[in-house]
Automatic annotation (TrEMBL):
It is found in: Membrane. Belongs to the ODR-4 family. InterPro entries: ODR-4-like. GO terms for biological process: intracellular protein localization. This is Protein odr-4 homolog. The gene is Odr4.
Length: 446
């Protein structure tokens, strides 16, 4: 028996509108949520045209000319804009009858390429019982016939399986949201044996260790520890018959274990380091979960992944920004201080779900609006952009010779300690005073 996809009704109209465009084919992504019982599709997003296609107003006429790299890059960008619980769960293609025979092979190839690209960036591993089927939706532009199949992305030899595609009104109008703020203070040493200090690689390694702490953390939902298999809404009244968006929020606290149990044996390692990176601040995290008797473990898993993704994505964006502004060959950054982008949320019409994005300090609202149109084919009003981490509450103190007494004392003690351990000049990441509303990224090198 194949999987069933419950699809937001508005998506049917969106796909129908796309099919009327006079093009041989149009590709795009399906966004939603998987669960063991059923899958939900709450957004469909067409692949944005490349610059040359915009200028010349042309599009390729054969499926063999599909730009796989462009589509996977789009999927990576879109995945950054999805809060916890949402993922790219498939690919669609709208094609003329002449191209219908080629469409399924093209879809299969794209599904595996997109999944490979997204998996490469993740710092978490899928659970054993996790759904690994991804949807391949084929629509004929002439007859409007819809054919949905799935492929198991964990099996490279997977063959197509039939799936049901069912439209439903107000599908995500009463989904549940889990909110939390996680304080972050991650110190990442850079080994002296690591030439050119590959910041991106070292940062990812450091975040990998931190992500394991998040995975092992205890999550309090509305002040309570709940069993994994308990229903998330147990003891609460479920909203019925209300098609207006109505979010039920759960406040979550994350308790990170400070040490391993007494049975866990650990050893200390001394390594010679020539620099360090310090990530300090707080992250605003959010996950959404369907309202069909969701389990606590589903909700917690979605939130864990959002915590890990949001910090990892911001670091990745910072490195991309540095490469654009400073050049790809600049690997050494001397005593620099950077602010990671702020998180923001934008509502989806007719849904309680909000999409996410990130804003660098100098970015205007117009740039954010343009990005939503390009990446998610969604118009956004400036007043609908909700910045989760208010920049006006931030006190940024870059490390200078005039560092305040407390910070200078910490810096001096750390310097003396490291110089006793190492017979060489070293760099320390000094603590930077940042309120719990934005991140800082510190990198210091001798």
């Amino acid at each position: 028996m194949g999987r069933t996809y419950f699809v937001e009704e508005a998506i049917g109209q969106y796909l129908s509108d796309l099919s009327t465009k006079l093009k041989p084919y149009i590709t795009g992504l399906l966004i939603g949520q998987c669960s063991l019982q059923r899958d939900y599709v709450i957004r469909a997003v067409r692949t944005p045209p490349k610059e040359e296609q915009k200028e010349d107003n042309i599009s390729p006429s054969k499926l063999a000319s599909i730009d796989e790299e462009w589509i996977t890059t789009h999927a990576s960008q879109v995945s950054r804009m999805l809060p916890g619980g949402l993922l790219v769960l498939g690919v669609f293609i709208i094609a003329t009858p002449e191209l219908s025979k080629e469409s399924q092979n093209a879809l299969r190839k794209l599904i595996f390429s997109v999944e490979k690209s997204l998996t490469k960036r993740r710092l978490w591993k899928p659970a054993e019982e996790e759904v690994s089927d991804r949807a391949a939706l084929q629509i004929c532009s002439a007859t409007k016939k819809v054919v949905c199949r799935t492929y198991d992305v964990q099996d490279p030899k997977s063959s197509a399986k039939p799936a049901d595609w069912k439209y439903q009104s107000a599908l995500s109008a009463s989904w549940l949201a889990l909110d939390c703020t996680v304080n972050v203070n991650i110190h990442i040493p850079l080994l002296a044996t690591s030439p050119n200090h590959d910041l991106e690689k070292n940062t990812k390694n450091g975040l990998n260790r931190w992500s394991k702490q998040i995975e092992d953390s205890v999550f309090l939902i509305n002040g309570q520890v709940k069993d994994d298999d308990t229903e998330l809404l147990e003891g609460q009244k479920k909203l019925r018959g209300n098609i207006q968006p109505n979010t039920q929020f759960s406040d979550v606290k994350v308790l990170t274990q400070l040490s391993q149990g007494s049975s866990h044996r650990s050893t200390a390692t001394v390594q010679v380091c020539s620099a360090s990176i310090n990530l300090k601040g707080a992250v605003k995290c959010r996950a959404y979960i369907h309202n069909n008797k969701p389990k606590v473990k589903e909700a917690v898993q979605a939130l864990k992944r959002d915590i890990i993704n949001t910090l990892s994505d911001r670091c990745e964006m910072l490195f991309e920004d540095l490469i654009i502004n400073e050049g790809p060959h600049k690997k050494n950054f001397e005593r620099e201080y950077h602010v990671l982008p702020q998180r923001l949320f934008v509502p989806v019409a007719g849904s309680t779900v909000m999409l996410s994005d990130y804003k660098f300090g100098d970015e205007a609202a117009e740039e954010i609006q343009e990005r939503f149109v390009e990446m998610l084919d969604q118009s956004v009003q400036a007043e609908d952009i909700h910045i989760a981490e208010e920049i006006n509450t931030v006190n940024i103190c870059p490390v200078t010779d005039n560092t305040d007494d407390t910070q200078q004392t910490q810096l001096t003690k750390a310097t003396l300690l490291l110089k006793l351990q190492q017979n060489m000049g070293v760099v320390i990441a000094a603590a930077v005073a940042v309120f719990a509303s934005i991140f800082s990224f510190n990198y210091f090198s001798d």
